[in-house]
Structures are given as structure tokens and as C-alpha cells.
Design a protein that fits this description.
The complex is a heterodimer of chains A (about 375) and B (about 375).
Chain A (H helix, E strand, L loop, with lengths): L8 H10 L19 H15 L11 E3 L7 E9 L5 E2 L2 E2 H14 L4 E12 L4 H18 L2 E10 L7 E11 L15 E4 L5 H9 L17 H13 L6 E5 L5 H13 L2 E5 L7 H10 L13 E4 L4 H8 L9 E7 L5 E5 L5 E3 L13
Parallel strand pairs in A: 5-6, 10-13
Antiparallel strand pairs in A: 1-2, 2-7, 3-4, 5-7, 8-11, 8-12, 9-11, 10-12, 13-14
Chain B lengths: L9 H14 L4 E7 H9 L2 H4 L4 E8 L7 H11 L4 E5 L13 H6 L3 E4 L3 H10 L4 E8 L4 H14 L4 E7 L2 H10 L7 E4 L1 H7 L6 H6 L3 E3 L4 H16 L5 E3 L11 H10 E3 L2 E4 L3 E4 L3 E3 L8 H4 L15 H5 L31 H8 L4 H11 L1
Parallel strand pairs in B: 1-2, 1-7, 3-4, 3-5, 5-6, 7-8, 8-9
Antiparallel strand pairs in B: 10-13, 11-12
The chains are: A alpha+beta (about 375), B alpha/beta (about 375).
Chain lengths: ~375, ~375
Amino acid sequence: MTEQFTPSPLFTRVERARRRKPRVRDEFITLAHGSGGKAMRELVEGLFLEYLRNPLLEKLEDQAVFQVNSSLPRLAFTTDSYVVTPIFFPGGDIGELAVNGTINDLAMSGARPLYLSAGFILEEGFPVEDLKRILVSMRDAAHEAGVEIVTGDTKVVQKGSADKIFINTSGIGVIEHSVSLSASAARAGDKVIVSGTIGDHGTTILIARGDLELETDIGSDTAPLHLLVADMLSETARLGAPDAIRCMRDPTRGGVATTLNEIALSSEVCIQIHEDRIPVREEVKGACEILGLDPLYVANEGKLIALVSGEVAEAIVGRMRQNPYGHDACIIGEVKPEPQGIVTMVTGFGGSRIVDMLVGEQLPRIC
Amino acid sequence: MKFIDEYRQSDLARTLAGKIAEMTSRPLKLMEVCGGHTHTIFKYGIEDLLPPNIEMIHGPGCPVCVIPMGRTDDAITLAREPGVIFTTYGDAMRVPGSKMSLLDAKAAGADVRMVYSPLDALKIAKKTPDRHVIFFALGFETTSPSTAMTVLQAAKEGVENFGVFCNHITILPALKAMLDSPDLQLDGFVGPGHVSTIIGTRPYEFVPREYGKPLVVSGFEPLDILQSVYMIVKQVVEGRAEVENQYGRVVPRDGNQRALEALFEVFEPRDFFEWRGLGSIAHSGMKLRPKYAAYDAELKFSVPGLRVADPKACQCGEILKGVKKPWECKVFGTACTPETPIGSCMVSSEGACAAYYNFGRLSKVAERSAANARA
């Protein structure tokens, strides 16, 4: 797992198979195709990309970054749909999630979010009172983030054709500096930063479903992260290292593990994380323990992962901690040259293991 | 975390591993019978800590891995019956049948729902009286008491639209079959923890008595497993063979009488039950007693009950017996991966192949094993 790593024939054989061009062999779409893990990667790369390919889409970032005219700043554009159940949960609701999620997808490119659209698919019989509550959340979340919802769409479908309410939000933002962030930009020597405790949202949703009869005071971490990103970028500018941040991602579906795997594969590097440095709330750890889940794969809605140059990592973390949404930021690992495309973890117990992408469904429909 | 972190201390682990290394340099093969142990061994990288002479063999104790393909096909047939809601533990949904998995059947229109316990399935039955709810009952004595209690509850409440597709198995005949297998040379067993909370430690006493092998019932935290390995190696070095209980905080010698009574009340042994890779083992499976026939999905619906041969490429049998290591299977990690499992050892996170693929694909273990084989 270091520079001296010599792959065995087994490792080489398996990794060659793992990196085969993704193909969709399934006859039907299953829940696994939406879980943010390997099956979803197959669907996106093996199907959507094959039919809709263009230079912007094939970068497979969470947003497209483009320039309308060379004299104008670059724009970031993204879209996301929210089908969470239950629609109201401790710490937030589907409306707040829909606004913050899209803001965060813009923010991860370094953009300042400007305008959002909102599309609603409502199931016949959905209470107007609930819709009002959701709209209030969306208004407040947009207000807090300084964005406006400027266009939208509504469809009502027959009872049973949708689950209460689905919301799609798209967003547009402006990139006002020269930074270019990409999942393919990480390099050996970089540090891995996480902005706070992981697994809060996914665990909250699972408990809020009420199937498990667990009682905790965990809430979703849904939050807008663009100001935290702005702080990080201003810190690198202050340090005279504008390119120090290589990549940022919000680890939503599939959690931290899947996001790190995407970065390791895109950048062709090894990411090594340390279990005892990863911040996990005691309640989340406990709930995951009971359910046999790994918090590394559980969704987050108000956290980011940043791959940054080793020289400035401590300074960036220091600045992040001054922001309320980066209060628990810390360095959880580093980038090594080999073995490429792999995430490894030094366990708190003293051993080491691979942290692979999520396979199948860990928590159904969490965001 | 109280009662968890205490069992994950790396300094204690290193001390224990050091003591194990000091005791003997003789090559020893120890089998962890339970899939939960396999999962822990890989998740915490325990093989990294053990000295190279100690080889862990991953045994047949993953209930999902040992379900034969024909039974999965039967489950899918039941799930596709009109008016049925088929409920199952999550892991079982991805087990490949001869044509599809339950997850595929769900995507194709069957009403398959994941539940965390059979009581959840009973709740669904009470909420939907116009449908018939079947619970895919899987597992060893760890899970069978809760199925038994649920059947008793359904009978008490007179819930008529609930049934169980019973595939419960018992650990002792399987353990005996492993011990009788001539191609398996083991020096000791890490005994299953959860099963033993129900059956206790007394039923394992035939292992040292008749086969001269030590067995230590172990908990599931990484320090539990290391301590159990230490206890087994100590027995071997001292020339002893006994049943010892490392998991004393949970496992009593005589087990849980209430759970055993419920088990005996509801279930009786089948003459034979087929295990994937191990073949048919006498009295190793359980079925509902005639008294509870009203809850037996196999009697209420017709299932094909065909025996389906495992895919030719699949070497699950050898892997379950520890005769082959996962990476020695020719389809490991290429045609057979957790997302496209051919064999069930790759499906469950407790399966040896999936554990090795997900957590330990780096060459360390394979290379060490190859070096041991050469030595």
C-alpha cells in the first residue's frame, strides 16, 4: 500500500475486471441502481453516458462547468431529484434537502449559487398543509443561502403512481475565480479532509422510518455548504496557493466510501484513510452497529470531502473550523501513488483493509 | 462507545497477537465456523495481526451462503404467487437462483419486502388481511427462535394470512459433517457466538471428546476473536482439547431454555436438508411441526422443490469447507463479484468470498497463503 506496492497476479486480475467498461446486464431497474454505488455507476456510465455523451457530461462531475462567452465568468449547472421517505424527519424535510442538495452540488465546483428551479411531482391526495410546510422550508433554505427559486413546474399523478411528493431542483451558479476542481485532480501527497461527522443524515432517515423502534436525538445534517467552500477558497488565496484544493465532493448517497472510490478511480491514485480519525457521532456509531451498517457508506447531506495539497491542509482545516458547518473538520487520510484506484483503511484495531464502493442497497431511498 | 470500544483496542490486540506468536511457530489451521466472525476478521484486518503460522479457514456458518439454489428458486416461486407479499432478510434478496434473484423478481413485479425480523412480517400480515404474507425463514439457531416466537404469536392472535417458508438449519450436524470430512485437516474451531447464546456450550462437547479438537465459543468483536485464537493455540500447545467459552458475557453453558422450548414447540428436524456445497446432511434442517401446518408456506402453496446443481464454475463447496481459498476459485473477482455473484459466498457480507473481495483484495493474505503452501 506504499510506493513499494507490488501487485500480486490475483490483485492485477481482479482489478482489471473491476475496471472493465461498465455494462448494464440487468433486465430491470432495481433499487440498487439508485443507491449511489457500483450498480448506479454502471447505469450512468454504461447507459446514460453511452446515449447522451458529450465532453461536458463525460467528465461525470456532480455539475457541468462551462463558459457561455470567453469574456464572461464560468457557470456551473446541476440538477437533482429528491424522493426521500419520510418527507419530514428530524433536522429537516424534503424541501430543505432539495434546496441545499442542489446548492451543494454547485458549491463543490467552487461556484456561488444564484438561481434554482423546482419541479414538483405530487401524488393525488397529498395534503396541501404538508405542501405548505415544505414550501416554507424551501423558502427559508433559499433565503439562508442567498439564492432564489426562479422557475418551476408541477405535475399531479394518480394515487399510487408516486410516493406523496417528489421534488426536482436544478441550479445555476457562477465561478468567480480561476480554480478548477475535479475528481481526477488528486495526486500523491494530498490530504483528505472531511468537514464534520459522517453518517448523520442516512442514520436519521432510517430511524425516522420507525421500523426499528430506536430512539435517538440524531438529526439530519442537511446544510448549505457554499459559504464553507468560499472560506476554503479564500484561505488558499491568502496562502498564495490557489490550486491547493484539487477536488471537492459532497458524500451523499453511497457515503464517504463511495465518494473516495470515485476520486481514487478518476485520479488513478490510492486513498488511504485512518479509521480512528474519522469523526462519527456516538449515536450514529451505535445505530449502525445495531443495524450492521458501516457509517462510511451512509449518506450525508451537509458534509464535504476535500482533497487538498499536503502543505496547506492544516491551514485549510483551521479555517474550516471557524465556519459553523466545518466546526468538526479534520484530516482523515492521505493520497498515495499505489495501488491505483483503491481506497484502503488503517483500522482502529491496527489492521488494514480495502474500502470498496457500495454494492447494492444499504439504505433504500435516503435522499 | 460503552461495551464496544473496549473490544477494539489496538494496543491490547498487539499484545495478544504477540503472545500468540510467542506460543508456537507450528503451522495451525483454525476454522471460524460463523460467517459473522469471517466478516469481523476482514473488517478489522485481524489476519494482518496474526503470526504467519496461524491460518484462519472460513467455515460454513453463513446461512445465506449455504442455501442451495433450488431453495432460492422455490422462494422466488412463492414470491411470484398472486396475492403474496414475500418478506425476507436483506441479504437473501441478492442470492442468485437458477434464473433470477428475489431482487430481480421484485423488479419484475413480485411484492418482495425487506424486513428486520419475522415480527415485522407478521405486522404486515395484520395490516394487509387481504394478502398472504410469507416470511423467508433462514438461519441457524441465532434466528430460528424468533421465527418460532412469531409463529406462536400468529397462532395466539389467530392471524391466518401469515406463513413461513422454513429453511432453518442447525449448526451441530454441519459441524459434525465438517469434522468427518477427510479432506479437511483442522487444529481447532472458533465456535459460533450467537448460536451458542441459544444452545449453550454443552452441545459442542463431542468435538474434543470424539475428535480431539479444541473449540472456543467466541464473541464478534475483534478482540474477542483474537482472544479465542489465543485460547485455542494455548490448548494445542498444552496438549489439551476442550470446549472453552470466551463469550461468557453472553453465552451460558446450557443456553437459553425459553428459546429452546419455543424452538422445540414449533419445529422438528427434517430427515435431510441440502446445504450448498456440503450436500445433504441428515437432521440438519428444521420444518414446522404438523400442529403449526397452517403456517407452513410449503404446505399452503406448491413449490417445485427441484434440486438444482450449482453452476459449474462455482467452487463454493470447497470454499465453504475451507479446502480452497476464495481466490483459488477461477471466477473469483472476475465473473463472480459482489455485484454479479455466481456463488452465494459472494452474496452475503458474511460470505468468505465477499469478505475477501470487499475488504482484503490486496495481495497480503493470498501471498502469505501461497508462501505457506510452498513451505
